[in-house]
Batch of 3 targets.
Target 1
Amino acid sequence: MDPQGSSWLATGRQALATGRWSEARQAFAKALDVDPTPEAHAGSGEAAWWLGDTLGAIDHLQRSYAGYIRLRDPLSACHCALELFSMCFNSLGRRVVARGWLQRAARLVDKHGLDELRGWVTLMAAGNPEDADEAERAAHEAIAIAEEVGDADLELCARSQLGACMVQRGLIEEGTALLDESMAAALAGEGRQLKTVVVTSCNTLIACGRVAEFARAMEWVRAAQGFTERYGCPHVSTVCRTQHAQLLFHTGDWAGAEEHFTAALHIGREAEPAVSGEALAGLAELRLAQGRQEEAAELVRGLDAHASAARVQAALLIAGGQPLAAMELLSARLRQLDRGFEDPVRPLAAGAAGCLERAGLLALQGEAAVEAGRVADAAASADALERLGRDTGFLQVVADGAVARAGALLAAGAGGEAVEPLELALAHYRQLSMPLGVARCQLLLARARTGASPEAAVAGARAALAAFEELGAGRHADLAAALLRELGVKAARRGPRGTGLLTRRERQVLELLEAGLSNRAIAGRLHLSLKTVEHHVSSVLSKLDLRSRAEAAAYAVRHLHPDGSVDDPLDA
């Protein structure tokens, strides 16, 4: 090889070893200019992968694979095939293509006696199983091979995969023990490969996130901070980055959640719809919680066929005043689960993770029934959720069931009876480190106590409003402020100053309030449902600290400008 090319290869290898990904990519690019060797392509592919350029990584690794085959180097070619399997499966969701690369790697191992890679082929099969039993069998086999050949990286990755499989089956204590063990050893550097931290970290996040072990997952995210600062985020695949974003959303770091949802969409920009759809649906759920309903709707437009979007689409229907349509959508998805419909990306989505999906659908079904005035249906959803909580023992499902029961009781006019289940849910959400759930319970408790204890109701609503504002949960903050106004308490929403205080739609509603139109007339003018207009009017009153439509009309006369902007109420 040309000496200059060899020098650039050495520079690239050194940069890879120390996590200087951009430098590595530049060095390998210069090596490729001199001589496009398989090694230079392999190095470029690894650097591109760490930098989030999945398509670039795959292109280089395919070239590297072909080059090693021509050079009759089956060991290096097999390494490339295994990397290609992982990228196609986890970042792009291309399961058919991924299976092809895994099969090719297995054939190379068998044909050339590559025993040092047999355990890795087995481990990859454990992450791409047809059923849970096969997944666990493959993970056990990989562990046995790792111990026999003394491969610490393989052992840690395989134990982590086994832990994820066990958690997926509902064996939470046993599975998380293996995940914890693997994470501790990987972060301590027991393995020699940086990707061992990636594999164990992603297994931990995905497994814990899908059974609501949020506090455990966040503790490991914090423990991995040193690795992240030195090498970058270990959640390199689309699936793992999406789960990281979901974890941050549930635990209250919404700015971080947005960052990781966006990164997941960037990494998986050419991913299969089932993969990218999960990230889009997650970002839409965040937008909806922030009160940015139109943006949420745009994000899930065209995702009707994807299970990951069903819940946020139903929530949008409820927010838009169409609870019966939401109930139909949720019932259809629940029937799919009953028929054993599985996640096309994660074939083990049934079991423990499937229980959480079912719980989320049932919880929304109860909310939709309350909005539609169908109290009996709301109670039936609560019954189903409570049974699911008893069967699984998952605290989130138990909490969701208690909230659904309270919602049905409130709808039936039995607010006093709703206090006990809400207090139970509040305790569980706190234990799970789920601040949005905590604040929603506080708001419902305030509503339940309005008759018997108005002072406690005001205190609870204020606490909920403060929590929603802290999170940036605009839609829920509007509801808390509205309840405080019902209780005779002025409750201005905090928000950005000036024209950003009201959304474009809210400014349109304010303009029509100034003109004296009724809610029904506004609905007709803007082609919205009456329920949606009522929500916008409530939001306008809340954000501008106004008590009535008449005050809103008067405010508009003084502060609404011809260009649609609105003066800041703090300056008014």
Note: The domain at 496-572 is CATH 1.10.10.10 (Arc Repressor Mutant, subunit A).
Target 2
Amino acid sequence: MHRSRNPEQFSRPLPQGGIVSLVLLWALCARAGAADFATAPKDTETPIHHLVIIFQENVSFDHYFATYPIAANPPGEPRFIPRPGTPSINGLTEGLLTHNPNSAAPFRLGRSQAATCDQEHAYAAEQRAFDAGLMDRFVESTGSSAPGCDPKEVMGYFDGNTVTALWNYAQHFAMSDNFYETTFGPSTLGALNLVSGQTHGATPPDLPGGVTGGTVMGDVQPSLDDCSKPGGIVMDGMNIGVLLNQKGITWGWFQGGFRPSGRTDSGQAICDASHPGSNGPKKRDYLPHHEPFQYYRSTANPHHLPPASAAAVGKSDSAHHQYDLDDFWNAVSANNLPAVSFLKAPAYQDGHAGYSDPLAEQRFVVETVNRLQKLSPWKEMAILITYDDSDGWYDHALGPIMNASSLPAYDLLSGPGRCGVPSPESYPGRCGYGPRLPLILISPFAKVNFVDHSVTDQTSILRFIEDNWRVGEIGDQSFDQKSGKIDHLFDFASTSHPGPLFLDPRTGQPLDGPERR
């Protein structure tokens, strides 16, 4: 890869787990009747010619992987038995489980407790919870105090009896235990960082609770979207979509509910499609502040116009590469899988606490991955599953300060008004890295039952796209200049590859039996 980056990265020592040496014979995964896809262009840095990013909502690493690979296995819940030699992770030790520095101890949530309260996950609140690296103020700072909620719930975690599919994917493929949200803060910041590594450049430059000094710090709406609430913003600068367009690489952002449920007399889109959430009330499928490309004039599709045809998906037309999830599968059926695809579940399946839960999320993820593994392009595909932010859920790991900031009343990580010592020319309000998040790689080129301990963040995905398709870099203080590589998750040298893993969307267990691995 042709770039020089030498960030000063540091983190706490992580446990070095043994890596199982398991070689699985490569098996053709295209079933009878599967589409005969055109050969992908061989113009990539690696054998990956199709990247699919499943971008979910609001989960810290410990919230889903605190005790991996050990599950409680109570009666009535799907069992999880780890493979022998599964590597250790930087999870919750016995000491952290029984003598935690927080005012409440971490505790296991079972399947019957899947629907939880939404926790506090603001930029300043999360820094306050980290308490200069002591990681001991989560109950007071990010625990939900909404009616009917207990702030101590923020210490809850699920195990392999509830997030069973993700644990099984980690066993069969590869995962990271040292992957971070690029900055502190809620969904919009994570989404913007994923596609640009940049939360600075907003107009207007100041909005109460949302934008300070031109930097996005809260869940503000994109003005360039008919389905947004008033009072939104527009982002300046580059994003990965523009870089891909300049090189003629097909791509798209596909989000549940993006297709309008109707239109006004003037032609504006109406986005009222909804489903009952895990907490009961209906939730709109499409949430504009989860769609990062709608913030940029260069990539926005304000009126949610459809693509000209399934064959046009991924190419530049009136849809501007912004689509409904159905457009993705229509393109797949037309033998037109884009090179880079971002998939966003409808809200009720995105895993966001308060209106979704791990079981609803599991159904979406498993059904999606099962379908992708049946395609001919699977042999050249990488699927990444990750999240936009932590929701404020407890995680015990402190990441490195890769970007300093000193905004009074907002930056609190290393003291009042402080997150390290920023340089005079740096943009404000981008303290990071933020909380630790899950990252799973599913691919024929994934290392098997492997845990990567190297430091990476959301913009490491951005960097992989930049490098693999040779499209250049974002620039303008984008975090892509500081990101570590996710390459450690891959094994491009081996001649043997892990085959597909088909799971039950309801239980998360292998379809050929829960004990067979």
Note: The two ends are 35 Å apart (CA to CA).
Target 3
Amino acid sequence: MSAAPSKDFESPAAPTAPPPEPEARLLPVAWLQGEGSFSSQLLTVWQQYFIAFGMFAVTTLLNLWLQRWIGYQTIALVYLLAVVLLALFVGRGPILFGTALTALGWNFFFAPPAFAFNIADTYDNMMLVIYFVVTLTVGHLTTHLRAQRTLEQERERRTAALYQLTRELADAADLDDIFCKIIRQVGIFFKADVALLLPNTNLPVELSPYTASVWSPKEKELNVARWVYDNKQPAGRSTETLSEAEGLYWPLVTSKGSAGVLALRGKSKCELTVPQRNLLENFARQIGLILDRQRLRDAETNVRLLAESERLGRTLLNSVSHEFRTPIAAITSAASGLQTSGSLAPTQQKLALEIESACARLNRVVQSLLNAARLQSGHMRPNLDWCEVSDLVQVALRGVGNLTAAHPLETRIDPGLPLVKADFVLMEQVLVNLLINAATHTPLGTTIEVAARIAGEELILEVADRGPGLPSDQLDRVFDLFHRAPTAKPGGTGLGLAIVKGFVEAQGGRVWAENRPGGGAIFKVKLRVSEKPDLRMEDIL
């Protein structure tokens, strides 16, 4: 089973195998005392006790040979030296065992009477006790120093390993390179076969190995990986959860949740040690941070590219729109001149009217493109002033007289409407666009209604028709830029309603669409009228 990586970490292509790593960049790691990936100690406990016993036997034979030249009391120093050397290789238990053997051996073989455990001389008894205490103390201190040195070496190895991983991932060119280096570096440090399991974009989420993974877990193992991915906790071999699994599965957690699962299959049968588990946990955290950084970097790149694309689109749209206006004006002027020349045949006169009408429509399209460019650029600055609502409606109706000639117009303006603070030019364009939209998308002869009323502290302007109405799932989308409803008639650019929304919201208002009972659509514009104008006599004059 194969699936694509999740969207946040999806890459266009993945190599089939990780590229070779230069030998100079590889960090040789011999974990503590062993070469195996999951090995914890070079010597087992019983081997250490055997070494302690062997040290005692060899030192006793040596002392039996040296006894003829040195006294039995000096032999105790030889035993002491042997115990100190033994402490460099074994733990505290074998040290105590060796100390007891050497003390008893000196007592039995060398202290008079020989080959007996009783000591006749009080001085020799004191020496035996002091020897035992000194030997045990020196052995303990030596073991402690050796353990401290081992911990420091282990800490250095972990620091070097983390540094190596961080450096490798920091130098990665893209997400594919990051995944390949994760698989390679983890495999080197832990001497294990590594699989990077990534989620797909489907629901429910499925995990599949990245193409550069060294091994591919079976379905039973993938179930363990899914549990790890969902619960964000390690499981499998060397853990207390699902320990019968073939591999060890560790979650890769980012700020957005689980990004995947790191699966390790050891090349030996040894278990993972505590220091190795700590290092693997640090690896997983570092990988999560790197994936977070890469996700933010990709998001930043996408945002920058989108911003550049929008800026280029606005610039191109603005330039083309301005370039169109000059030839349109020339064509309109020429058509008007032909109509007034008086020397045209009826057919020619009709063609001149069609040219003028087409130029007017093209001019409206260009004006819409310019308005859309202004809205998208954020340079729309409305000039708010006190407006008379009835004048605003009448001016808008005169502006669309030719376009709405085939539709009866009804106006319902409540008497005594207060002045509203708005941009007269922009609000006129809002009503014109709504009226053109109603005339374009309704059958000929249907009535278009324009109403204005006060609701509380808000002015409601309505443009209603008796056309086919709007699909219920399109009521919000009709105001999107370049959006056209599926049932819309051919023609149009999808800019008119988007401009309406932009102009109204720029003035602090709101616009929405509804379906009318009995058929048709109604567009409502809401503006606040809570303020009252402070008109002085000199302003009126």
Note: Residues 508 and 527 are 7 Å apart (CA to CA).
